Amino acid sequence: MFPRAVLCSLFISCSLVAATPEHGIPNMTVPPKAGKVDLFPESALKPGMKGVAWTVFQGSKPDRVPVEIIGVWQNAWGPKQDIIIARLTGKAERTNVAGGMSGSPVYIDGKLLGAISLRLSVFSPDAICGITPIQLMLDVKSFDTGRPANARTPDKIQQARASLPVPGDMLARVMAAGSSGSLPETPMMTPIATPITMSGFSDDAVKEFSPIFNQLGLSVAQGGAGGALDSAKPAKDWAGSMQPGESIAAVLVAGDMTMTGGGTVTYNDGKRVLAFGHPLFNLGPVDMPIAKDEIITTLASSYQPTKMGNATEVVGALHQDRHSAIEGELGATAQMIPVSMRVRSYNRNNTVRNSRDFHFSVFVDQKWTPYLMMATLFNSLSQLNDFSEEATFRLHGELQVQGQRPIELTTMQAPAGTPVPTPMLLAGWWGDKFNRLFVNSDKMPKLDAVNVSVDLLPERRIAQIESAWIADNKVRPGAEIPVKVFLQPYHGERIERTINLKIPAGLSRGQHQILFSDAETLSRFQNIASSLNRIEDIPQTVALLNEERSNNRLYVSLIDSQPTVYSDEKILPSLPASVLNVMQSGRATNHEFVSSPESAHQETSVPFDVVVTGSYSLKIFVN
User: Fold this and answer.
1) What is the DSSP string of 23-82?
2) Which DSSP string do the residues of 325-337 spell out, in sequence order?
3) pLDDT digits over 82-97, tens only?
4) What CA–CA distance (Å, rounded) separates 162 from 14?
5) Residue 164's pLDDT is what?
6) Is 511 exposed, middle or buried (0-12, 13-18, 19+ CB in 10 A)?
7) For residue 535, what is the DSSP state?
8) In angstroms, rounded to a whole number, what is the distance separating the alpha carbons of residues 194 and 355?
9) Is the dihedral of CA 290, 294, 295, 296 positive or negative?
């Protein structure tokens, strides 16, 4: 906290003492240092006042930028939340107000006025900026602990804009973001776009995933990261880092691939730092690593000037992401999810041609973690030189949830005949699993580790269930009968497999059906029921994910004419009509449920190294 009583007694450190004015501008020639500082009162501002801002244009040392006050934009950000309008000169006249300048501290007479945080729309030739008063930033911790309603998260993308029908919520959001976007129609003050630096990401990955950042008011910039960014543990020299005016990076992904959001430090009392002067995502309370950021260059542009930087080493953790600032603690360690990913490509003789291992950590957040998992998987696949349009991907993943048994996930993804590339379809499937786990409303799950392996197979491996055959369709309860099933692959000869099916001893006499199906057919009603009801318990969610059927198996089920009810994770097969009538009347449950007129009793499943599609039913008569 920054109590108001304490603020009144803050004093300026010796390195910030203002000398006599030179050419009308306070002669503050030494970059500011961490420590307590006097505050310049907003009420004392007058148009034409001269000050100085500090920001990094290249390297790690802040440069001095002359500032001239234009006026105060009253209530610009809400009741009693003013924005100070100013003009920058010096180097900023060439670069304009660039992405990454957010948080650059502004001083008048050596007293801290606030942070550069806004710019005048796009295409403006003047370096006009908005300054967030320091008092608004110091109040960042006086808010409640909840997430703001206008948090900028991937689920805010309008999915209706997507032009393609695609499976899964995560994939729909990415496609929607890429199909829209427009320039502002009128000049206005807007928060400086925070540059999201993606290092170790392919051009394809940046192209596919940058639109969602753009729509949330952030820009994507090329950059890099040092080897010390592979851990959330603060570096040994954290205590001397994050001086006012230096660059700061909020870390979303760290390791063999990195994703960071860059800005500038406004305030540092030796332990706590304030930066940006506006939100990163406006998430409220967060736990995200913060790192040093070394600027390669500042790209001058009348449209979207921005800093290009390399995040170097973690020095603390971000705890608040609010409307007027982000607030972090030096020396603190943020929780991250460690991910190990192995990607292999195979020859046609089933030998491994190439293999690559990736190790990285992902920021923990209910809405952002699934999206980041999706982006990193797609990036890993797009970096394979062996990729071809006819390739099939085989994935096996293990999610180690603290206090729960591991979640085992298996799937295959073959080309689907749509404009969406196969790696993106697989990444969307992967992201949706984390989405189901993290939208849990009970509490946030803690993932100790995520391990995933993806095999790239050199042909389109997909086969449709074509037919089935039984020598004698008159059977006895308890008997074991051989059944042949036939599948037609995308290319090649028909696949024939014999399955020994045991008829349940208690199966009633009369006609029944044996259903040979893919996973989607058997799980359709259960998936609909799950989408209608919010799972609030982590063990339930873990159980559901572990029970999911895989699309590379053929499922054999006995069908009877009794209805089945699906509700949340519960399946009630062969339900008596009287019970179903009571449930439909709404007197027995407050949950939504889906009913099917028949019940499928899964008897066995057969693994295939192809994507199995379709279904076929075979009649039998029980004597």
Assistant:
1) TTB----S---SS---B--GGG--TT-EEEEEE-SSBSS-EEEEEEEEEEETTTTSTT--
2) -EEEEET----EE
3) 899 999 999 999 999 9
4) 57
5) 43
6) exposed
7) -
8) 35
9) negative
Q: How far is CA 33 from the centre of its chain?
A: 35
What's the pLDDT at 417? 75
Can you give the pLDDT at residue 28? 77
- The phi-psi region of residue 256 (left if phi > 0; otherwise alpha if psi is between -120 and 50; otherwise beta) is alpha
Which residues make beta-bridge pairs with 361?
A: 254, 338
Beta strands in 426-552 (DSSP E): 447-457, 462-470, 474-475, 480-489, 495-502, 510-517
Fold (CATH) for 337-457? Ubiquitin-like (UB roll) (3.10.20)
CB 393, CB 423: distance < 8 Å: yes
pLDDT on residue 226: 57
User: What's the Rg (C-alpha) of the chain?
Assistant: 30
Q: Is 217 exposed, middle or buried (0-12, 13-18, 19+ CB in 10 A)?
A: middle
Q: Which amino acid is at 307?
A: K
Q: Do domains 4-142 and 337-457 have the same CATH topology?
A: no
DSSP 267-290: EE-SSEEEESSS-SS--EEEEEEE
Domain residue ranges in the chain: 4-142, 154-334, 337-457, 462-622
Q: Residue 348's closest CA among 455, 422, 457, 423? A: 457
The predicted structure's pLDDT at residue 117: 94
Q: Answer yes or no: are the C-beta atoms of 412 and 611 closer than 8 Å.
A: yes
Per-residue pLDDT at 573: 57
Query: To which residue do tokens 């063999």 refer?
Result: 256
Its pTM stands at: 0.84
pLDDT for 310-340, tens place per residue?
898 999 999 999 989 999 999 999 999 999 9
Architecture of the 4-142 domain: Beta Barrel (2.40)
Q: Give the tokens for residue 137.
A: 């930033």
Residues of the chain scoring pLDDT < 50? 1-25, 144, 159-165, 181-186, 580, 587-589
